[in-house]
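Deliverable D2.4 — example input (structure tokens):
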């Protein structure tokens, strides 16, 4: 698929207070303007802010969205957000042509929704990683509840049996994979959904993924991107409000072609061409905006300091970026070839 650019995307209808009923109904965002940006002194400091955010907000995320924290893939007007979210997992499985029964590393697993899906419905043995200890606790609890776990359901290493597969969860910075998983060729699949955009050192991630994959193993990615060839004005208006200085606590966003370049530099090959599904996932943020129209939520966010309000305000920026075609969403799959050699291990 041709990568989306600012000139070839199909724009969605504008979303603002003149077109969107939610603004007229309860425009809380104007009551809580975003304070001036806080400087980020280092990527380590950014990770601390991200960790704190999830420690604080994960319970609320679960109350809003359930077990999955990723976008929904809306193909039918009747799709619920839960059905759309599982559709996204199914799309990734389809694009990857993933064999059943693989050992899978699910990076940025959140509360374990995808890990459980892959274990239960695809017989995979999944190791889920998250930077948040709170999310590990929630993932373990939700998994044991779903499994009806008892001693017989538990396997060595803390894994919990689900159907013919299993899931276990570890609190780990995804940029420390080499320390926790020193062995090469450990996983048949590395799965990362909407987490790679949060990692500062993406070159390191692709290098680690290539090293950890078995021969023919798949790297499965779903993520957010900026469109190709944006003007400075477009970046300032639609991209900067969600990056490192603002609500989504993201390092500078990449384009889809940059991910392809980084994967190939790490020794991986394109297995499934990148597929831009921006128009089919954008409804996620319309639903999200509706879900956060709670005065108590905004007051709580305000009490937590700048990051809380900036996060909620960023919902508007996300919707605007999708509407303008400057913010993109795509899925892509890479594979470790035979005789990949040592590229994945090189510094």
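Example output (designed residues):
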């Amino acid at each position: 698929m041709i990568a989306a650019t600012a000139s070839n995307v199909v724009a969605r209808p504008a979303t603002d207070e003149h077109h969107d009923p939610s603004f007229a109904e309860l425009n809380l965002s104007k009551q809580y303007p975003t304070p001036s940006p806080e400087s980020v002194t280092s990527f380590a400091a950014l990770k601390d802010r991200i960790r704190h955010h999830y420690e604080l907000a994960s319970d609320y995320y679960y109350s809003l969205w359930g077990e999955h924290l990723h976008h929904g893939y809306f193909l039918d007007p009747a799709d619920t957000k839960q059905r759309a979210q599982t559709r996204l997992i199914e799309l990734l499985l389809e694009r990857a042509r993933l064999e059943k029964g693989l050992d899978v590393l699910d990076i940025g697993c959140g509360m374990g929704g995808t890990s459980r899906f892959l274990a239960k419905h695809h017989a995979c043995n999944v190791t889920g990683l998250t930077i948040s200890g709170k999310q590990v606790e929630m993932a373990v609890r939700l998994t044991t509840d779903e499994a009806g776990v008892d001693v017989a359901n538990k396997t060595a290493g803390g894994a919990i049996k689900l159907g013919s597969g299993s899931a276990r969860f570890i609190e780990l910075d995804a940029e420390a994979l080499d320390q926790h998983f020193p062995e090469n060729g450990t996983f048949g699949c590395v799965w990362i959904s909407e987490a790679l955009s949060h990692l500062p050192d993406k070159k390191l991630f692709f290098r680690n993924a290539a090293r950890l994959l078995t021969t023919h193993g798949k790297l499965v990615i779903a993520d957010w991107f900026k469109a190709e060839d944006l003007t400075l004005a477009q970046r300032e208006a639609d991209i900067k409000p969600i990056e490192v200085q603002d609500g989504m606590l993201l390092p500078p966003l990449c384009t889809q072609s940059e991910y392809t370049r980084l994967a190939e530099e790490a020794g991986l090959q394109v297995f499934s061409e990148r597929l831009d599904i921006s128009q089919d996932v954008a409804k996620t943020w319309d639903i999200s905006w509706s879900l956060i129209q709670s005065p108590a939520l905004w007051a709580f966010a305000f009490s937590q300091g700048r990051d809380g309000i900036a996060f909620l305000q960023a919902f508007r920026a996300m919707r605007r970026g999708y509407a303008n075609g400057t913010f993109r969403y795509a899925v892509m799959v890479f594979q470790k070839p035979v005789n990949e050699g040592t590229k994945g291990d090189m510094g």
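Residues 1-26, 340-347 have pLDDT under 50 and may be disordered.
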